[in-house]
UniProtKB/TrEMBL annotation:
<dbReference type="InterPro" id="IPR001100">
    <property type="entry name" value="Pyr_nuc-diS_OxRdtase"/>
</dbReference>
<keyword id="KW-0963">Cytoplasm</keyword>
<keyword id="KW-0274">FAD</keyword>
<feature type="active site" description="Proton acceptor">
    <location>
        <position position="457"/>
    </location>
</feature>
<keyword id="KW-0520">NAD</keyword>
<feature type="binding site">
    <location>
        <begin position="331"/>
        <end position="334"/>
    </location>
    <ligand>
        <name>FAD</name>
    </ligand>
</feature>
<dbReference type="InterPro" id="IPR016156">
    <property type="entry name" value="FAD/NAD-linked_Rdtase_dimer_sf"/>
</dbReference>
<comment type="similarity">
    <text>Belongs to the class-I pyridine nucleotide-disulfide oxidoreductase family.</text>
</comment>
<keyword id="KW-0547">Nucleotide-binding</keyword>
<dbReference type="InterPro" id="IPR036188">
    <property type="entry name" value="FAD/NAD-bd_sf"/>
</dbReference>
<keyword id="KW-0560">Oxidoreductase</keyword>
<dbReference type="InterPro" id="IPR006258">
    <property type="entry name" value="Lipoamide_DH"/>
</dbReference>
<dbReference type="Pfam" id="PF07992">
    <property type="entry name" value="Pyr_redox_2"/>
</dbReference>
<dbReference type="InterPro" id="IPR050151">
    <property type="entry name" value="Class-I_Pyr_Nuc-Dis_Oxidored"/>
</dbReference>
<dbReference type="GO" id="GO:0004148">
    <property type="term" value="F:dihydrolipoyl dehydrogenase (NADH) activity"/>
</dbReference>
<feature type="binding site">
    <location>
        <position position="216"/>
    </location>
    <ligand>
        <name>NAD(+)</name>
    </ligand>
</feature>
<dbReference type="InterPro" id="IPR023753">
    <property type="entry name" value="FAD/NAD-binding_dom"/>
</dbReference>
Amino acid sequence: MNQCFDVIVIGAGPGGYVAAIRAAQLGKSVACIDEGTHAAGSPAPGGTCTNVGCIPSKALLQSSEHYEHALHHFREHGITATGVSIDVAAMIARKDKVVRQNNDGILYLFKKNKVRFFHGRGSFAGSTEQGYLVHVDPLGKEVGHDIVGEHVIVATGSHPRELSGAPFDETAVLSNTGALALRSVPRRLGVIGAGVIGLELGSVWRRLGAEVVLLEGLPTFLAAADAQIAAEARKAFQRQGLRIELGVTVRSVEREGEGVRVVYADAQGVEQSVEFDKLIVSVGRVPHTASLGADTVGLEVDGRGAVVVDEECRTNLPKVWAIGDVVRGPMLAHKAEEEAVAVAERIAGQHGHVRFDTIPWVIYTSPEIAWVGRTEQQLQSDGVQYRSGAFPFLANGRARALGDTTGFVKVLADADSDEVLGVHLIGPMASELVAECVMAMEFHASSEDIARICHAHPSLSEAVKEAALAVDQRSLNS
């Protein structure tokens, strides 16, 4: 007799494990299947985010920032540091420890919330009167078996897109997985793709001493960001030593000894050839559905491999849902989490809610970049009349005390109603400051609302208030 559950979640990334926990909190019997595995064979739930994405990259960004501060910025504070060196193996070990702590935390939360965890690969195997048959393949450790779920939530995530003619070997041609596990600092590092992943990983190894070249196919830097923010970011990164080339067309990637040779046409069409010790390829991600068994039950998947869903994450099959990277929308961990909670609540008969236009975006470089809502170029394209206010961190007392005054905050508000339409930040702790802006937009706040709220002094958050004041041309400190 197969075990039966109210809800089966396939995948334990940010979307999957949150969906499982929320469904269990709502009184459902829940099973969660995940194939993530440590080298020793133990479970590694958390998906890309926890294991080879958000969490380990932030650990390395923090370590590399400490190293750079010790080399170049301690003296500003009267601190003399001599003989500073980097132990890459120790840095990677710390990163691995942080990852393991997050893995263990998820397993603890499953136990606490009475979620039954199955370590293996989950796939559709058919249907019965009780629900859907889901096969659990323990990946060779033992014989697989089937479980039954009345509802199934697909949360299988995504994997890195390979560049044509340059498959990942994780030795010289690296995905994010290999880029987070380098055991020494490469002398020359190439990065194809100057998006979030490329910039963050390029920043890590640049701080540690690598010469980093980013090759971006688009003619515009950070095209998704507000143009003024993107221009400020590009200047900051180039001052730091990142070489950024736009409008590039990669012709070929070939192994050259232990390194890699990349042949490309630059923005003027001139062919260039450059050698790298390591090459990170960061040209997007692909929904992970190949092993899902979608055809077995007739689950609709589109041409790029994504599960087709409606605005409430329902698939074409009754009581089958899909969330996160495996469906439409931005591939962001927090977007997956919001969809996860909403779907679990819909299954329980509640009214789950996700507002896509207030999902924040963050790039954890230095300076950090964050935004929520629409950019100036989007508002102009849509013909929306708006007012803009900006405030530089150079005029913020806390930023001066921190010694980090790069960047600014910009607030965009409707010209008639004053409702905030977008907030764009580049500078210290932008990833934290954007939360206030998301909350303001969720409650349809005006720039005047933000301007009238008392912000602690001295704090970086005052820059948000000042930018809101600037919408009405009454900033107090600039």
